[in-house]
């Protein structure tokens, strides 16, 4: 439960009446609605339903679940949010492309992992399928009532870790700590911290698995009663995590109810589909020379969530140029695998310039590629 205290100061105002007149009454103190005292830390959980293309149900080979996010300002009973729709198409391999969320945002809810999670999902392969949609339920779960697997997944992998939501992490941690734990105030200093051989553990691109290990510590600082307290189901990670904790050592002193998480992220990138040639997006009335390049480009940043999932993308941006080099009339005309790549690429182009010229240009086309740093080449040709 979050306790919020607010104070309102009454500020006296100078009287506009004659000298000796009674001054106006002080501004009354504003009362705080009692419901504010009931605010509680909560998590938003996104639950995709079955996918349909043209009304026909599509069988998922792997439907990645979006990560839970912190949502600290929830009132008891205020758990309903309208579902959101994600529209897309499937290519022959069963990969979702053209992902677009409708509406584009869910007020008060962090949905930054929704489209990235669907971008690494896969459906049964076959023919290309247009007009696909998947409805996503938005559930607000108070931390005090949330299932322990949801809380552990948030603590290890979840999104939205800003200082504003520290109360969510604290409440979730207290709920997941083993009963009778005396291990965390303060935590024992490690003398040796062992780790799994992560490189030997298979993990699908864009996904993350975790193992939460619980253990006690004997008087000599050796872990005892080592057991698995929570897991996403990666058997190899579970096994090696238990071994790693057993091999670790801590400062002398008996402790009960300690926990430690290990997680494995899939390092392989999900490449964007090959983009069409820029010329295919050039309008008929375009007079922009093909050799003119954008200058003063800001630092490239991925749309939220996609870099965490190692999902690459691209966007084709059409724009005009004023004689003094300013860029205007910017719009994304294509983006893959999801619409946010177009939105972020358009913002990049808006901040760029071209060299000054005797006249402006219309119908310029730029392609922006979002490539992970270790895959970036010196010249991408865009």
Q: What layout of secondary structure does this protein have?
A:
Blueprint: E1 40-53, E2 56-58, E3 60-62, E4 69-74, E5 80-90, E6 96-102, H1 114-119, E7 122-123, E8 129-142, H2 148-157, H3 166-176, E9 190-192, E10 208-217, E11 223-231, H4 235-247, E12 249-250, E13 255-265, E14 313-321, E15 327-336, H5 339-350, E16 361-370
Antiparallel strand pairs: 1-2, 1-4, 1-8, 3-7, 5-6, 5-8, 9-12, 10-11, 10-13, 14-15, 14-16
Helix pairs in contact: 2-3
Could you characterize what this model shows?
By secondary structure, this protein is α+β, with helices and mostly antiparallel strands. It has three domains: 41-176, no CATH class; 208-265, 2-Layer Sandwich (TolA/TonB C-terminal domain), CATH 3.30.2420.10; 278-375, 2-Layer Sandwich (TolA/TonB C-terminal domain), CATH 3.30.2420. It is built from five helices and 16 strands. The strands form five sheets. Strands 1, 2, 4, 5, 6 and 8 form a six-stranded antiparallel beta sheet that branches. A hairpin with a 5-residue loop joins strand 5 and strand 6. Helix 2 crosses helix 3. The radius of gyration is 27 Å and the shape is elongated. 32% of the residues are buried. Mean pLDDT is 85; it is low at 1-36 and 376-382.
């Amino acid at each position: 439960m979050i306790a919020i205290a607010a104070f309102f100061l009454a500020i006296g105002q100078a009287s506009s009446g004659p000298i000796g007149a009674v001054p106006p009454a002080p501004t009354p103190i504003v009362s705080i609605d009692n419901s504010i005292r009931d605010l509680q830390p909560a998590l938003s959980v996104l639950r995709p339903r079955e996918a349909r293309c043209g009304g026909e149900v599509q069988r998922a080979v792997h439907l990645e679940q979006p990560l839970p996010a912190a949502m600290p300002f929830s009132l008891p009973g205020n758990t309903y949010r309208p579902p959101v729709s994600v529209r897309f198409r499937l290519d022959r391999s069963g990969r979702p492309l053209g992902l677009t969320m409708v509406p584009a945002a869910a007020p008060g809810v962090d949905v930054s992992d929704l489209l990235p999670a669907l971008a690494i999902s896969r459906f049964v392969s076959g023919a290309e399928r247009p007009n696909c949609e998947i409805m996503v339920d938005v559930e607000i779960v108070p931390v005090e009532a949330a299932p322990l697997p949801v809380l552990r997944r948030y603590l290890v992998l979840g999104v939205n870790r800003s200082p504003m939501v520290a109360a969510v992490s604290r409440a979730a941690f207290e709920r997941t700590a083993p009963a009778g734990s005396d291990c965390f105030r303060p935590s024992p200093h490690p003398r040796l911290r062992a780790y799994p051989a992560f490189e030997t553990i298979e993990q699908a691109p864009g996904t993350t698995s975790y193992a939460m290990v619980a253990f006690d510590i004997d008087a000599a600082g050796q872990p005892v009663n080592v057991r698995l307290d929570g897991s996403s189901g990666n058997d190899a990670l579970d096994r090696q995590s238990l071994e790693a904790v057993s091999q670790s050592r801590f400062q002398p002193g008996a402790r009960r109810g300690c926990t430690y998480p290990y997680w494995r992220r899939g390092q392989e990138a999900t490449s964007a589909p090959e983009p069409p040639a820029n010329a295919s997006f050039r309008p008929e009335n375009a007079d922009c020379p093909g050799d003119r390049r954008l200058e003063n480009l800001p630092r490239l940043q991925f749309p939220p969530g996609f870099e965490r999932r190692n999902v690459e993308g691209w966007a084709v941006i059409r724009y005009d140029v004023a004689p003094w080099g300013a860029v205007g009339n910017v719009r994304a005309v294509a983006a893959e695998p999801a619409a946010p790549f177009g939105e972020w690429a358009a913002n990049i182009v808006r901040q760029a310039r071209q060299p000054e010229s005797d006249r402006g240009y219309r119908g310029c086309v730029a392609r922006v590629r979002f490539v992970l740093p270790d895959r970036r080449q010196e010249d991408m040709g865009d």
